[in-house]
Design a protein that fits this description.
Length: 565
């Protein structure tokens, strides 16, 4: 057990449907990859993901976690990691919260004059970093000491080797996105760092804003944290321009955990799902909405940009090596046996950072009725409908975690969300474009038929077991007395009547039974969000369960194991 978290490697067979560069995807909590409700992503909506545009999970109702509970953060990458394959990498997990953080109601990029809109108009747009933070970045000179190889890039902090055009994506700061640890203040707090060179852990941890203050230059009369930044990017230049260098205090949090990164082949067909167990800290409680971010940086080991950290007296690869002195060049021709070979190298991509972010979620205080003892373990659902090709690079359905081991007296918080706007016409059960999941007990993992409610032992009561199975309480599972009655559960005969167009006033009139909203056997009537109050487990044992809707050949085995010690 790793203090503060656990790094777990799971195997998931994924089809590499297209080439990608340093892609990273969050699967639990669900990563958006800039997707909101549409079939495709606006890659400038809230951030620059640098990912395959097919990735991401459609928006679903907001999840709510309890402070101090343990959530399984799960992600995949489609590029390499580790010296075994000549790839220097780091992966950083971070979060931010605030009353202005939101998903919004549209796929558009927020306008750069968003603060001139009415409050109602502002709420319509998604919002992570503030517009003031972006303006400071836009005003500030970039770090001129950075290695940019043979690239010729602009002069402000929005210009980086991989985004010289400084295209605005949401209100993020490109320089902060591409470099870690960053040297100016940012709104992000660190959770954990995975690195292929653990000798760098002490440096990463000491420079994290969790524990280290960060400075920036602001106009003398406006030393606010965001929105008044100027061009100077260091104290001496700031002073000479008659402005004020403000040292923003650290977050006052523990240093992020630093762990060895998983060793990943750059082009293997088996991607490993990496899982980190995060205990949600108290500082998130009732702080508005929160988002989780994963940053994934990969760099060629043709040169060592961290030589000054990796070895005593090592020479950092910095701006001194830019231009013709760069150890890497774009599309170089190399003499091999008296004749040249030209091979493809793009120095924009030789050091590459991609990211993914979750949809907004909330954190609330631990319920007093649970007492102060016993851990709360989150049990969620990852993935979306579609077969392996259709879903890629998202995952097919699975529980997160799929194997959970707890102690007697602990609680499990069964909660998941889904989307009603997934791409249409893809493999899956129930109404097209929708995600639904439930939990029923099975005898063991070899079985795909559930135990009866009367014989189940997973849940403390029949009422809870029925709610977990049908996603509705008993009053909502009212059977329809006529085929055209609304907000009730239709029988098969009634579904047939609707399929033949016999209920003109029904919104699903003429649709087949699989697609009918009131087909409760397919879980179509409940919404995509399910949240059960934490259940206490007092009896030791091993319990097996599955989702009846998603445990199908096209979507693999949607099953899980709970061990109570």
């Amino acid at each position: 057990m790793i203090s503060g978290g656990r790094l777990v490697l799971l195997l998931a067979i994924l089809l590499l449907a297209s080439q990608a560069f340093a892609d990273v995807f969050l699967h639990n909590p669900r990563g958006s990859n800039n997707r909101y409700r549409g079939d495709t992503n606006n890659q400038a909506r809230l951030f620059d993901s640098q990912n395959n545009n097919n990735g991401g999970y459609g928006w679903g109702p907001t999840m709510t976690y309890y402070q101090g509970s343990i959530v399984s953060i799960e992600f995949t990458t489609t590029s390499g990691c580790g010296s075994t394959y000549g790839v220097d990498c780091n992966i950083v997990l971070q979060y931010m919260c605030g009353n202005e953080v939101r998903d919004g109601n549209r796929d558009d990029t927020p306008p750069d004059n968003i603060d001139a809109l009415t409050p109602a108009e502002q709420q319509d747009y998604g919002y992570h970093e503030s517009v003031g933070y972006y303006r400071d970045c836009n005003n500030r000179q970039r770090n001129g000491g950075l290695f940019i190889a043979d690239q010729n890039i602009g002069t402000n902090a929005l210009n980086t080797r991989q985004n010289d055009a400084s295209v605005r994506r949401g209100f993020e700061c490109d320089e902060e996105r591409d470099y870690y640890p960053y040297w100016h203040p940012s709104p992000w707090k660190d959770i954990a760092i995975f690195t292929s060179k653990t000798s760098r852990c002490a440096y990463y941890q000491s420079q994290s804003q969790n524990v280290a203050s960060k400075g920036h230059c602001v106009t003398q009369n406006n030393p606010a944290i965001w929105g008044f930044g100027v061009a100077a990017n260091n104290p001496s230049t700031c002073a000479s321009s008659s402005n004020t260098w403000v040292q923003v205090p650290s977050w006052g949090l523990p240093a992020p955990e630093c762990l060895p990164a998983p060793v990943l082949h750059p082009s293997e067909d088996v991607d490993r799902v990496v899982s980190y167990r995060w205990t949600i800290p108290a500082d998130l409680t009732d702080k508005g909405n929160c988002v989780l971010r994963i940053r994934y940086n990969v760099t060629s080991e043709e040169y060592n940009g961290w030589a000054h950290i990796d070895s005593v007296g090592g020479r950092m690869i910095d701006s001194f090596y830019n231009g013709r002195g760069s150890p890497i060049q774009t599309n170089p021709s190399i003499d091999v046996g008296g004749r040249n070979l030209t091979f493809p190298v793009n120095t924009e991509w030789d050091g590459r950072t991609s990211q993914d972010r979750t949809h907004a979620f909330k954190v609330v205080a631990r319920p007093q009725s649970l007492g102060s003892t016993g851990k709360i373990w989150n049990l969620n659902v990852r993935g979306r409908r579609g077969n392996i090709v259709q879903a890629y690079p998202a995952l097919q359905y699975g529980f997160a975690p799929s194997f959970l081991e707890i102690s007697t007296g602990d609680f499990v918080h069964f909660q998941w969300t889904g989307s009603d706007t997934q791409p249409g016409g893809q493999a899956g059960s129930g109404r097209d474009r929708t995600d639904r999941s439930n939990v029923v007990q099975i005898a063991d993992l070899s079985k795909s038929y559930p135990l009866s409610i009367a014989s189940q032992t997973l849940f403390p009561s029949q009422d809870v077991a029925e709610r977990m199975a049908f996603l509705l309480n008993s009053t909502a599972r009212i059977p329809c007395t006529t085929p055209c009655q609304l907000d009730c559960c239709r029988t098969r005969d009634q579904q047939q009547t609707v399929s033949y167009g016999g209920c003109p006033n029904a919104p699903d009139n003429g649709e087949n039974a699989e697609n009918q909203i009131q087909n409760c056997a397919r879980l179509n009537l409940p919404g995509p969000y399910f949240n059960e109050f934490p259940i206490k487990f007092n009896t030791a044992g091993t319990f097996y369960y599955m989702s009846t809707r998603n445990n199908a050949f096209s979507n693999r085995a949607h099953k899980g194991v709970l061990v109570v010690l």
